[in-house]
Write a sequence for this structure.
């Protein structure tokens, strides 16, 4: 494989999908298996254009089931294989990712969310949070990075390969159609130049030597004869997942210490949240923001502290409570009142968030009025 | 003690006796696959993949690197390995459900792309692991758990002719044969040729093997053989269907 990748830092202006393709090259990915679906197509388009120049390969499969399973095969063969999908493709991808999860395979999948179910809108939503974090017939032992801008698409695509091969859990980069399609400036760099050590892949099958003579054969399975056997396997992996969770979990927060209200958002919605919170601060309101960068595992400790330390939390998302459900589960036991602004499938502006926060701050000053229950 | 038949070298003695039901055809197919691997001396290059269903019981059958996959997904997993490491010899082992029903799109696409892997499919005319339901290969009139009055082709169609379909859609370089556990010489020759075809880098290699399931067929030894040799072979013609540079219809 060619070692020639991005040689020096470069300021560029490009679409998110193009960024992902370049980041995969920078992360020394070897092979992409993919199936077309909007809005992630250009990841494949750019990858297929870059691939021959960097001695990389590509296979366009017959569907996402196959794209996921060929990725599993590529990873087992010891190559840095990845795929990308969206919406109904993400639904199909849950089957191969269930296999990867149980076999502890370092698969990397980039998801550019779109509205659902099925075709719905092809551009934008945050409705693939539940599916990506907890999909499949397993326990959701995955790592999911939710990006907010193109720089992060570059950074976290590189990071996803390292995280996957380090911890051997399926790793996802969760973007969306806006990030996929719009152009934005960012800095591309060679990971090593910034001290990011690229983790080398290792083969699961096709190992050196004759199996049964020089070494035991590598036997990989997701079939268990007894429930107890499965229990032991899942318990072991889950314990490991929980052990690594605090070191994998990432978040971003500001002005939460003295805040009366904290706004929570992820992905591109976080951009509106941050802008709204900054504006409100300038106007003298005691508000802050909290953004989980990893949606799985969540930054549990920080969410618990937050929910015990502020009086109100507003969860903002372009879905009907997919983040809120995950958040509330972790925040359970805290004293904060958790409320929400849900806009499934559409974007959210900073102004909308500001208006909502002001409304909540005002109601917070009023005394609650009890209404008499009326009968009949 | 009577002398025991010799196991292929590629078999894993620790996992024998194997887990298949008495009278099951899988053990026979896997025996000749093992012998073919032995004779070709490719132990260190083979990756063996099996499906969900009875074929999964072969996950630790061999002294070979093996992957047990999901139902119908063995072909894409092996394709993924082969594309990433072309020097490996990838074998996708499945039943008629995994190849012709739930995994049919993968079979079709891999055949059309001429993926340089070897697919081996045990056809026992029904789903065995799940308790004997109708399969794409169930014979007309055959009783299964989901065709209790016998398969009616007017309602559920005729048995799928897998190798004929694969033969029709594969480009040059493909090797396609139908074999039977009732004709061991031909079965072994076909398996060996299917592997050689991959070693030579020609294209997709596919062997369907007519197999037995006395458990779900509820047959004794005599009726089991009779069903394979008299009933199944009427519907499914045994022989070589396609081979690079060979006269079709001939087989060793």
């Amino acid at each position: 494989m060619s070692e020639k990748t991005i040689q020096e830092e470069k300021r560029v202006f490009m679409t998110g999908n193009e960024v992902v393709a370049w980041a995969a090259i920078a992360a020394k990915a070897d092979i992409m298996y993919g199936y077309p679906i909007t809005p992630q197509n250009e990841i494949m388009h750019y990858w297929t254009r870059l691939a021959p120049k960097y001695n990389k390969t590509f296979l366009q499969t017959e569907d996402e089931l196959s794209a996921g399973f060929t990725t599993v095969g590529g990873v087992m063969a010891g190559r840095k294989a990845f795929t990308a999908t969206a919406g109904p493709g993400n639904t199909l991808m849950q089957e191969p990712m269930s296999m990867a999860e149980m076999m502890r395979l370092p698969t990397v999948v980039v998801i550019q969310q779109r509205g659902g179910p099925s075709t719905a809108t092809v551009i934008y939503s945050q409705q693939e949070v539940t599916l990506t974090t907890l999909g499949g017939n397993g326990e959701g032992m995955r790592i999911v990075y939710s990006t907010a801008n193109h720089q992060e698409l570059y950074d976290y695509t590189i990071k996803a390969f390292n995280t996957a091969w380090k911890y051997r859990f399926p790793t996802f980069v969760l973007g969306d159609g806006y990030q996929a399609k719009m152009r934005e400036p960012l800095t591309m760099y060679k990971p090593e130049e910034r001290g990011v050590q690229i983790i080398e892949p290792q083969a699961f099958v096709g190992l050196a030597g004759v199996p049964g003579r020089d070494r035991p054969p590598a036997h990989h399975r997701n079939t268990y004869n007894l429930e107890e056997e499965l229990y032991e396997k899942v318990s072991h992996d889950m314990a490991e997942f929980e052990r690594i969770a605090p070191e994998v979990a990432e978040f971003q927060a500001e002005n939460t210490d003295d805040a009366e209200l904290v706004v929570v958002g992820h992905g591109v919605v976080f951009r509106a949240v941050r802008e709204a919170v900054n504006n409100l601060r300038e106007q003298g309101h005691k508000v802050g923001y909290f953004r989980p960068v990893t949606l799985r595992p969540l930054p549990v400790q920080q969410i618990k502290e937050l929910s015990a330390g502020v009086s109100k939390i507003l969860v903002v998302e372009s879905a009907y409570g997919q983040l809120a459900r995950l958040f509330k589960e972790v925040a359970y036991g805290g004293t904060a009142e958790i409320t929400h602004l849900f806009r499934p499938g559409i974007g959210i502006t900073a102004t909308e968030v500001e208006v909502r926060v002001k409304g909540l701050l005002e109601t917070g000053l009023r005394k609650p009025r009890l209404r008499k229950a009326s009968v009949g | 003690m009577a002398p025991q038949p010799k196991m292929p070298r590629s078999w894993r003695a620790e996992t024998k006796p194997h887990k298949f039901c008495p009278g099951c055809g899988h053990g026979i197919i896997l025996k000749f696959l093992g012998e073919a691997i032995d004779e070709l001396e490719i132990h260190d290059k083979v990756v063996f993949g099996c499906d969900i269903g009875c074929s999964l019981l072969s996950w630790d059958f061999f002294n070979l690197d093996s992957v047990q996959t999901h139902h119908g997904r063995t072909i894409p997993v092996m394709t993924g390995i082969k594309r990433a490491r072309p020097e490996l010899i990838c074998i996708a082992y499945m039943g008629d459900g995994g190849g012709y029903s739930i995994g049919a799109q993968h079979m079709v696409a891999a055949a059309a792309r001429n993926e340089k892997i070897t697919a081996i499919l045990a056809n026992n005319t029904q789903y065995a692991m799940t308790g004997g339901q109708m399969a794409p290969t169930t014979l007309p009139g055959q009783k299964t758990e989901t065709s209790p009055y016998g398969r009616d082709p007017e309602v559920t169609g005729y048995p799928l002719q897998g190798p004929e379909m694969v033969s029709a859609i594969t480009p040059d370089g493909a090797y396609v044969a139908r074999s039977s556990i009732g004709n061991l010489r031909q079965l072994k020759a076909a398996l060996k040729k299917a592997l050689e075809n991959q070693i030579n880098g020609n294209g997709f290699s596919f062997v369907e093997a007519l197999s037995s399931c006395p458990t779900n067929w509820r047959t004794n030894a005599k009726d089991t053989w009779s069903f394979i040799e008299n009933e199944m072979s009427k519907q499914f013609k045994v022989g070589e269907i396609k081979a690079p540079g060979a006269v079709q219809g001939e087989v060793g």
About this structure: Chain A has a mean pLDDT of 95.
